[in-house]
Write a structure and sequence with these properties.
The complex is a heterodimer. Chain A is mainly β. Chain A has strands at 9-12, 17-23, 33-37, 44-47, 61-66, 69-75, 83-90, 97-99, 103-107. By secondary structure, chain B is mostly beta strands. Classes of the chains: A mainly beta, B mainly beta.
């Protein structure tokens, strides 16, 4: 099996740009998706297939994947973007799925 | 697509439990339905997934043999079952739908499972 790693915390000033990364061997092969989870709420899909955004997600959210690392970037962070962000992809075998440990984004 | 989960449960260690996730007929026929869990204040954890149309099931390795995921075509419902609960099973359990390459973005409201003596 394999795992996904994320930095535990990151902070960003209001209106500035922040990038969260997710690293794992399986990311050299498989797409990554990203979830936003605000405190006490159900996770919300913000990116899928590396860079694709559901229609209701603002375009300040963008994503990419290169090698074993995927990135989620928030350009012009807003107060409502303060949340935990989890990456999600398959494991190296392709048969199972994984969540990363999550990154807590604080908007200052 | 709406995923509707069963209500909160409080059980004792060693008891059995089944929780459910009801989806649409179309979703049931074409999608995977996955389960994730979360201890409040902790990270999401992937539990398992089922392809409803042929019941292909995958489990988190550490939970294989401890849980069972099944699907009922007649009611478009997916089940997560335990034969003997442990305190460490206490968490909020979410179901979600997924295609073959990426998730489709719909989650159930969550089912809180509390296992305590």
């Amino acid at each position: 099996s394999s795992e996904l790693t994320q930095a535990p915390d990151v902070s960003v000033a209001l209106g500035q740009t922040v990038t969260i990364t997710c690293q794992g061997n399986s990311l050299t092969i498989y797409y990554v998706s990203w979830y936003q989870q605000r405190a006490g709420q159900v996770p919300v899909l913000v990116l899928y297939g590396d860079h694709r955004r559901p229609s209701q997600i603002p375009d300040r959210f963008s994503g990419s994947r290169a090698g074993d690392t995927a990135s989620l970037t928030i350009t012009g962070a807003q107060a409502e973007d303060e949340a935990d962000y989890y990456c999600h992809s398959r494991d190296s075998s392709g048969h199972l799925w994984l969540f990363g440990p999550g990154t807590k984004v604080t908007v200052l | 697509v709406q995923l509707v989960q069963s209500g909160a449960e409080v059980k004792q260690p060693g008891e059995s439990l089944t929780i459910s996730c009801k989806t649409s007929e179309e979703s049931f026929a074409t999608e995977w339905i996955g389960w994730a869990r979360q201890v409040p204040g902790k990270a999401l954890e992937w539990v398992g997934i089922i392809y409803c149309s042929d019941s292909d099931v995958r489990y988190r390795p550490s939970l294989r043999g401890h849980i069972d995921i099944s699907a009922d075509k007649s009611t478009n419902t997916v089940y997560l079952q335990w034969g003997s609960l442990r305190a460490s099973d206490s968490a909020i359990y979410y179901c979600y739908n997924s295609g073959s390459y990426w998730p489709n973005g719909n989650w159930g409201q969550g089912t809180r499972v509390t296992v305590s003596s």
